[in-house]
Amino acid sequence: MEDQICQQCGRCCFTEGMSISATQDDLERWQSIGFDDILKYLHPETKELWVDAGTGKKLKMCPYIREACRLSDQRIVFFCGIQDMKPEKCAAYHCLRVELGCNIKEISSEFSEDH
Ligand code: SF4
Ligand code: SF4
């Protein structure tokens, strides 16, 4: 059933995904693979993510979210640009929207106007 799988609406990244911090395991993993790019978006003291590390200002959105037009139905979808390296909090996210039935029409129109 289509509403039982991830609809790639991106809402988790635009909402819950904007209030996460890196874990110690994240930091060690990123260091071990040389994924330094993410340090630009990590608060050096609080370890909050999606922050300009230089100014401490919160970004408007996660810098790794990607947008594409799905060929099968021409729908705008969102996906993670760092799937294999994403923060533990993102990887562990359990989507209640999928269980409840993601309202994809409402969500895609909401975000496609802004992005
Ligand atoms: S909110 Fe749920 S359905 Fe939408 S992209 Fe995230 S995991 Fe998928
Ligand atoms: S790292 Fe990936 S899953 Fe996490 S908020 Fe960013 S785009 Fe979404």
What's the end-to-end separation, in Å?
Answer: 28 Å
**Which cofactor or ligand species appear?**
iron/sulfur cluster
The chain-level structural class is alpha+beta
Q: State mean pLDDT (0 to 100 scale).
A: 86
Biggest sheet layout: 2 strands, antiparallel
User: Helicity range of the residues?
Assistant: 25-40%
Sequence stretches where pLDDT stays below 50 over 5 or more residues: 111-115
Counted by DSSP, the helix tally is 5
The neighbouring-strand order within the major sheet is: 1-2
Return the string of H and E elements. Answer: HHEEHHH
Number of structurally distinct domains: 1
Secondary structure: number of strands: 2
Describe the overall structure.
The protein has 115 residues and is of the alpha+beta class. It has one domain. Helices cover 28% and strands 9% of the residues. The chain has 5 helices and 2 strands, in the order H-H-E-E-H-H-H. The protein has helices at residues 11-14, 24-33, 88-91, 96-100, 104-112; strands at residues 65-69, 76-80. The protein has a two-stranded antiparallel sheet with strand order 1-2. The radius of gyration is 15 Å and the shape is globular. It binds iron/sulfur cluster (2 copies). One iron/sulfur cluster binds at residues 13, 17, 62, 64-65, 80, 82, 86-87, 90. One iron/sulfur cluster binds next to helix 1 and helix 4.
Write the layout of secondary structure elements.
Elements: H1 11-14, H2 24-33, E1 65-69, E2 76-80, H3 88-91, H4 96-100, H5 104-112
The structure holds iron/sulfur cluster (2 copies).
Residues 6-12, 95, 97-98, 102 line the site of one iron/sulfur cluster (SF4).
